[in-house]
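Reviewer comment 2.1 asked that we show a complete input and output for one of the modelled complexes. We chose the zinc ion case, as it is the one discussed in the main text.
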Amino acid sequence: MINHHHLDLPSPPKLPKGGLRVTPLGGLGEIGRNMTVFEHQGKLLIVDCGVLFPEDNQPGINVILPDFSSIRHRLNDIVAIVLTHGHEDHIGGVPHLIKERKNIPVVGSKLTLAFVGAKFQEERLSPPVVEVVAGEKRSFGPFDLEFVAVNHSIPDGLAIAIRTEAGLVLHTGDFKMDQFPLDKRITDLGAFARLAEEGVDLFLTDSTNAEVPGFTTSEEDIRPAIDAVFRTSPRRIVVSSFASHVHRIQQVLDAAVKNDRKVAFVGRSMVRNMGIASDLGYLNVPKGLVVDLKTLEKLPDDKMVLVCTGSQGEPMAALSRMANREHIIEIGDGDTVLLASSLIPGNENAIYRVINGLIRWGANVVHKGNAKVHVSGHASAGELVYCYNIVKPKNVMPVHGEWRHLTANAELAVRTGVPEDRVIIAEDGVVVDLVNGRASIVGKVKADLVFVDGMSIGVASEEALSDRRMLAEDGAITILGILDTKTGLLAEPIEFFARGFAHDDEWIRGATKAIDDAMVAANQSKRVDGAALELLLTRTMNRWMQRKYRRTPVITSIVVDA
Ligand SMILES: [Zn+2]
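Response of the prediction step:
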């Protein structure tokens, strides 16, 4: 396989006339914040603009955005943002980009636009929106687009075919090939085959499940397990899932009807999204089935179903609060909690903490580890191979995945006969040009992690996060010194203020001595002013802490004149 690492790539040359440039700014080398920029004839087309959720080693971070810095000086060249589907890792960053240029047209299917529209409303943004349906063709600047139905774990997903002078590109978005989806809307392999006849020059395809052999199970196949939970649960049922998984929630609603239970949605995103989905006809809610939480609470336990978020162990979500008995619903003996969702890598500890908490209160917890209550939303290796054989792409660029997923997907392409040198493994920021029917890596642009901390961008940098990790590991010590400017000596003994580090006399005595020694040594060579003394105190303390305790607390020294 070619180009396995991209450490020394230069910035890209000028795009040759008639060529198409593809620059992934997120989602390649990671799962999340998907964003791809297409450039042709001086114009830019953006496919998806999502967020990535932080990990444990990124304390205080709400979400992580793609880095817009490589397109920031060209915002006026953007002809549209096209959205493949309504998941957060594909739409969550759109409001942030719209804030930079308020009138970029946003293109997507009805449900996708409704989900992103709710975000625009919250942020008081109103970009022009263009609703499209599968099968439709639309042009934006020099990009002629065609939208193709794909099946995924959210309704109304689209693959995007992009025609330019440089050739035909097919971007699958997230997809799978469930042949029995609840909404009967299957991935349009007929359209894939028709595009193949025309000749697909570059195929960008979902790598998330490329390592998983065989075929992704149908959504329909988990119905028996969900039914069993509803049939056998003696008391309350709490279901946790993603707030966008309309089909999964539909299965829960169907089971509730069958078992004569009422349902309440809990949590802002769940209430909002299910309201949107039922208003638009994507979720079938029989009259009287869904009630508010207050009404639900008055019902007998065996008539209740709560549907909430928090299946990934998010600390503020309803499920975590139930596990900690911080929620008005007090989980107890005989209650059943159904986690009808995936277990996203990195969230394992948080999820098991919640599961343990719930079991401790007496709940029966049903999850994908002990029952067949979840299927993936992504095509497995078998489906991907089918796609390669149908699409017969001239060049392939795996998208959506960490290195292991991208590589597994690339290997599948090669096994179906795509020449190795036509399979491009790129990561975020790597620039790929399609020129004369051939795709190749030509350079790299900046594609850093952009942290959103609370409400603001830029408050947290990599450096700030490193400080936060140090604070968490080793605490902080502030040193206060009062300087006698006449003598260059301390007017009073040094004072220490420690956080996350026990305030104990023994280390304070040792540290004071180390600082005194350092000051004597410094004074022998030259006079000490306030700034120099601050530096001396910090350095001495750092060295002493490291030697004595093998610790690196964040040290701040303040010296004031007497
Ligand atoms: Zn998705």
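The pocket of zinc ion is lined by residues 85, 87, 90, 152, 174, 377 (CB under 6 Å). We note this here for comparison with the apo prediction described in Section 3.2.
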